[in-house]
Amino acid sequence: MATIKLENLIKTYGDVEVLHNLNGEIEDGEFVVVVGPSGCGKSTLLRMIAGLEKITSGEISIGNKIVNDLEPADRDIAMVFQNYALYPHMSVRQNMGYGLKIRKIEKQEIERRVHEAAEILGINEYLDRKPRQLSGGQRQRVAMGRAIVRDPQVFLFDEPLSNLDAKLRVQMRLEIRKLQKRLNVTSIYVTHDQVEAMTLGDRLMVLNNGVVEQFGTPIELYDKPKTIFVAGFIGSPAMNFIPAECTEKNISLCNGKKIEKNIKYKGKILIGIRPEHLEEDKKGNIKIVIQMVEQLGSNSLLHGILEDTNIEIVASLSGHVTAKAGSIVSFSAKEPNIHVFNPETDKRLG
Question: Among 171, 211, 253, 329, which residue has the fewest nearby CB atoms (within 10 Å)?
Fold first, then answer.
């Protein structure tokens, strides 16, 4: 196990700067998820930690040892890729033990580690099969088994579930989390799926255009997003945003309706309210012209636009809700669930 420190990391390709002065510390035994949209630099960051990409400037340390100039094989890490990277001509047993074999570990020790990992992952019965004889989920278990047998200081996961179907992804992410808890190995997991990030990580590092927007627990990011980007990226369905103006007593929405919010600020603002925090209220001033209703079983999503505007709003209500297209439904939100942002700086207010 090891602490990972990222200090003032910069990565450039020619004149293009991909990562901008990135800092962060992953604690010993912690599971950190790096999340963000495609092209934000998350996979580049993971490959820099692994030693597969050179660092333009800054330092990476693993277990109090600076690893900038170390080869990947000397960093005591194990990486799980999204395409499994299994040798098709080798059996599961051979795939899992190959890394140990080339390190000239004794045959008996390799066999012991392979069987131990196979037992943990529930793939004992597949040890003599070839990868082509396995399902996607089974192949991913083999890829994780190959990482486990190395007994590394750090696990690195590069979108390992992206090739699996939705149901299997849910199952596998639970297995990965239980596995990491059991082994207690420092882990960094890259994904663009914010639901996956919220369910897996002890902490989340949200990247946007090579910049860390926020680094904190899933609940911190959900309850108190620091920027408009984090507020809109974390949560499903995404947060609703409404332009408004702040006065001494209340907030005036862009359509002239007033809502109460105690905040010491005057001027143009952007308020954010999550769909699940909109409450049906006949006296509410957040009036939505309904366009469509999605029935999801346990809850319903009401899609529409804010009255007298073209601003799209989604409300999530529990149970089965019926509302005709064109009808107007009134909502309100409790004060703690109304987020206020400065549209010029993109930063949270209050």
Answer: 171
Is 90 in contact with 130 (CB distance < 8 Å)?
A: yes
Chain position carrying tokens 């040798």: 87
Residue pLDDT, tens place only, 154-170: 999 998 888 888 888 88
Check: CB of residue 149 under 8 Å from CB of residue 117: yes
- Distance separating alpha carbons of residues 167 and 291, to the nearest angstrom: 30
Summarize the confidence of residues 306-335 as an average pLDDT.
92
Could you tell me the end-to-end alpha-carbon distance of the chain, in angstroms, rounded to an integer?
Answer: 39
What is the DSSP-derived secondary structure letter of residue 238?
P
Domain 4-231 of CATH type 3.40.50.300: yes
What pLDDT band is residue 1 in, cutting at 50, 70 and 90? low
Task: Check residue 33 and give its pLDDT.
Answer: 97
Query: CATH 3.40.50.300 spans which residues of the chain?
Result: 4-231
The predicted-structure confidence for 207-261, as pLDDT tens digits, reads as follows 999 999 999 999 999 999 999 999 999 998 999 999 999 877 788 999 989 888 8
Instruction: Say which CATH topology domain 237-341 has.
Output: OB fold (Dihydrolipoamide Acetyltransferase, E2P) (2.40.50)
User: pLDDT value at position 216?
Assistant: 97
